[in-house]
Predict the 3D structure of the following.
Amino acid sequence: MPNLLLELRSEEIPASMQRKAAGDLKKLLTEALVEAGLTYEGAREYWTPRRLALDIHGLTARSADVREERKGPRTDANEKAIEGFLRSAGLSSISEAQVQSDPKKGDFYVATISKPGRSAEEIIAEVMPRIIRSFPWPKSMRWGKASAKPGSLYWVRPLQSIVCLFGPEHEDTVVIPFEVDGITASNVTYGHRFHAPGPITVKRFDDYVSALEKAKVVLDADRRKDMILHDARDLAFAAGLELIEDEGLLEEVSGLVEWPQVLMGSFEEDYLAIPSEIIRLTIKTNQKCFVTRKAGSETLSNRFVLVANIEASDGGAEIVHGNGKVVRARLSDAKHFWTRDQGDLPDLDTLRASAEKFSLDLGKPLDQRMAKLDALNVTFHAKLGTQGERVARMRALAAKLAPITGADPKLVDRAVVLAKADLRTEAVGEFPELQGLMGRKYATLQGENSSVARAIEEHYKPQGPSDRLPQDKVAITVALAEKLDTLASFWAIDEKPTGSRDPFALRRAALGVVRILLERDIRLPLLTIIEAAVPDIANTSPSAQVAADLLSFFHDRLKVYLRDLGARHDLIDAVLTPQADDLLMVARRVEALTAFITSEDGKNLLAGTKRATQLLAAEEKKGTSIADGVSDSLFKLDAERELHAAINSASREAASAVASEDFRSAMAALSRLRAPVDRFFEDVLVNDEDAAIRANRLALLTMIRSATGTVADFSKIAG
């Protein structure tokens, strides 16, 4: 079967866009081909900085003929109905239609419409210009004089050539010569812009790949990544070092080169006095280079690995020299930031009011930066005030949380007031990714307690479902205060996540709270805490309303978290009430219910309980009289007496177990209802003719529902 080779070659495509763009090209074209009636065996996309390519193999040569019968109006229909039928069916005369009979509806017209298949070449030539013109680039540009004309092409960078070849694997292929904005598809591509800029004629995908390779272009991005990684490892090993691997950087640099050449540069060892995180970010962000460390050590070396796009005649010496000059200049700036952040600010007299407000020591550099953050009235959010006001809210909230988490309140307070101080440091100003981490380093340098220093870094955690949690009780407390203040504040001003839009990462913050509470075994009355966290700002929602709405949001995050751990959604719903604000207890109930409901006793009790609740619900809907309480004197059968006694006993034991938060024991107590419930439904007719006996027996069913309801709403459990 024929194959299709497509290449769209342009000026450099930003590395961050390449992978998605290649995937979009494959999706758009294959869907268009299938919609037009073609099929294919497989397709794979490729990309380099200057081209998107697609190999579709096993593509049918033409679409199938289509024969369709279209039913029309009755033969005695009015003239307008018949004319409309002729137009829709493409008939010139009613004599071209057939007449069919229906015993019920009479005679009616039928048109047989035949649509011949189309060649793959015709279909591709039709769909490709449309795909190219409407391609979903995040950003596009126009270029040249022709771009001023209406309808001219938008593309991420100037489009330079198109290759489009179709044909069998071992025979001649043909060019599908469609045209887009003056560029006509052909069988000619171009290699590396410096090493092999001349034209290359290709026939099919295999010789296209090999021709590009000879022209110093590695088409497969994953192969380029593999080459870079292994060459970088080997180069580091030869120097007695280890490469510090970075998947994100590897992906980026593989999108910057078509012919990767891995080289090693160096900088003065004096710069190693700068924190390793700053060195790594400086070299990565500014020069897209990897750093190395001494073998078997966490200590950085003064060597870095860079990836060039040309095979230089001097072995890369000039490239290494040029990169080294830039790296040294950047590290010099970083060293300057690091040193200045440890010194005094020049305007300490203007910071005394802020220092007093937050109990800060202006003899310490990090305290000065917090005072500066407050004194400058740096905005946190237009409706929520300044960063200083935010820290004050966090401070008040952390004071309420400390007794619950068991953290030292003095250390918590100190950690909170310094938590955002590094936002005013020059290092974080240059590298925002280092906030928290630099705060910890500066706190350690000025002699803060290790728990305080750790909390400054860890209060941002967890940043996602797989990120580690804060370890220390002080850090846990500050992390909860920060996330709960964020959530309550944005909820109060009605800035909630909507659909896929969540600009303030509130889902992540809520999941962080859920993870901390459950994985660190913390009992927290969320409703009370949220009400206390709602900011006292004009035009915000009432705190009780905010708390109730935000609790529902926490419930949604809890469901996602528990389901990811394997919990059944119906069991979560069975224990989660709208007022449940102790998420740890909800999780423990779900865990106990899961163990119980999968046991034999649990399955049988569930069946009996569901029968009782369904019968009871049906009678309640009909308005049947149900006694307010159960009367022993109305019992006729032993099964009634046994069930009544069993319910009373199980209810007491279950309630006592729930009160002591022993949910497994509560389930065990309820499991003893299994036999008496089964016997009751075998021996007893609930809807007795005597109204008093019927009402009494329905009251017994109410007791079953109430007893099981102490641990879960069994009616919500499937099965």
Observations:
- Residues 593-716 form a domain with the Isoleucyl-tRNA Synthetase; Domain 1 fold (CATH 1.10.730).
- The first helix runs from residue 15 to 35.
